[in-house]
């Protein structure tokens, strides 16, 4: 009799992030595009303009209430528009800044804010409906279900945070001369949550769609990976600091470069007391910090690129490093141009879009460094 071979023990196999059905993979990459509010073209152009347009056009306070379903229908008749305009007239922005605004002018800023809110609903539906469908069909593994739930929760949180931010601009200020604007802290939280949502979505999508390879255990590659992580964190922080620049209109304080006026360090850098208030509330300090962070970011990217030249990298990884440097240089140029030209809306929106492009390149590089083949 032929002896029966004994079964050899196998190592436990980790559950894959997702079962290999194409639709769920495509969905996650689509989420990476839509949430942060991008599709491969939206990523760098359309959606970032939607995010920044209400602030840049001073239209974010034109819709003075929030209803998930009711506000999806815009005013249509003259009476409905006049009623909407009368509601706006009860709040500080009209009383202090726009007391001579006409109804056609109000319609413009109202539609800017309306399009922003409607696009947010489109983003939410682009997440929740496909996720529910794939969940029902059993295309999501247990780990991916947790990831999808977290991302959908972030989408809902982002919408609620947006309204919480708008409410801060509708409140009466203690001093009558205070300019009506949303809280720069809440604006930064709103932007920060959008960046986190975008980063998590894009990272998950890239993890699913790009083939995984074991990272070689070489000191140079490990150092490059560490540098890439640090550079990405710096880019994220720089983008977040832009919310304080926008919230305080700090881009209009010193419109010169590289000096701020006649000085490298302006006299009013620490004008507020206590000193820590200057970091988040003094427009001069906020612009100064954003300059320093921007210069530090492009310097870090350049150093990362030069260090990577010493290491043999796959073609796609090399492309990611080069793209990161190119976008960083472009973003610095956009920032300086926006400053020198006194923050024109189209250029400022492009600069804000560039921050997302730069963050995307950094995330792509980090993803590639996890997959450097032997």
From TrEMBL:
A Pfam entry, by short name: COX15-CtaA
InterPro entries: COX15/CtaA_fam, HemeA_Synthase_type2
Keywords annotated in UniProt: Heme biosynthesis, Iron, Membrane, Metal-binding, Oxidoreductase, Transmembrane, Transmembrane helix
Catalytic activity field: Fe(II)-heme o + 2 A + H2O = Fe(II)-heme a + 2 AH2
GO molecular function: heme A synthase activity; metal ion binding; oxidoreductase activity, acting on NAD(P)H, heme protein as acceptor
Gene Ontology CC terms, in alphabetical order: mitochondrial inner membrane
UniProt membrane topology term: Multi-pass membrane protein
Protein name as catalogued: Cytochrome c oxidase assembly protein COX15 homolog
Cofactor requirements of the protein: heme b
Organism: Cyanistes caeruleus (Eurasian blue tit)
Annotated localization: Membrane
GO biological process terms, semicolon-separated: heme A biosynthetic process
């Amino acid at each position: 009799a032929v002896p029966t071979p004994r079964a050899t023990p196998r190592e436990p196999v980790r559950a894959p992030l997702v079962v290999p059905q194409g639709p769920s993979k495509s969905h996650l990459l689509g989420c990476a595009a839509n949430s942060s509010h991008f599709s491969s073209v939206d990523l760098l152009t359309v959606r970032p303009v939607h995010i920044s347009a209400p602030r840049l056009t001073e239209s974010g306070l034109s819709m003075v209430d929030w209803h998930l379903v009711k506000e999806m229908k815009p005013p249509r008749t003259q009476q409905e528009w006049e009623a909407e305009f009368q509601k706006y007239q009860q709040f500080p922005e009209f009383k202090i800044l726009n007391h001579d605004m006409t109804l056609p002018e109000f319609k413009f800023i109202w539609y800017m804010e309306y399009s922003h809110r409607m696009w947010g609903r489109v983003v939410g539906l682009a997440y929740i409906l496909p996720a529910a469908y794939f969940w029902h069909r059993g295309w999501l593994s247990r780990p991916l279900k947790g990831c999808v739930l977290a991302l959908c929760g972030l989408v809902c949180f982002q919408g609620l945070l947006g309204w919480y931010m708008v409410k801060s601009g509708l409140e009466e200020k203690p001093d009558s001369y205070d300019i009506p604007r949303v809280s720069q802290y809440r604006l930064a939280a709103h932007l920060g949550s959008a960046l986190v949502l975008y980063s998590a979505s894009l990272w998950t999508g890239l993890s699913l769609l790009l083939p995984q390879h074991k990272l070689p255990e070489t000191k140079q590659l490990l150092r490059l990976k560490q540098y890439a992580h640090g550079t990405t964190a710096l880019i994220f922080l720089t983008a977040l600091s832009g919310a304080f620049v926008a919230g305080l209109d700090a881009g209009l304080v010193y419109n010169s470069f590289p000096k701020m006026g006649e000085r490298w360090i302006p006299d009013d850098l620490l004008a507020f007391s206590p000193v820590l208030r200057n970091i988040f509330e003094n427009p001069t300090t906020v612009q100064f910090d954003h300059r320093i962070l921007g210069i530090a970011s492009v310097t870090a990217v350049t150093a990362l690129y030069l260090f990577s030249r010493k290491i043999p990298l796959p073609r796609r990884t090399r492309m990611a490093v080069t793209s990161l440097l190119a976008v960083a240089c472009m973003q610095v140029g956009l920032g300086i141009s926006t400053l020198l030209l006194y923050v024109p809306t189209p250029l400022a929106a492009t600069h804000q879009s560039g921050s997302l492009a730069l963050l995307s390149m950094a995330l792509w590089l980090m993803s590639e460094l996890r997959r450097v083949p032997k």
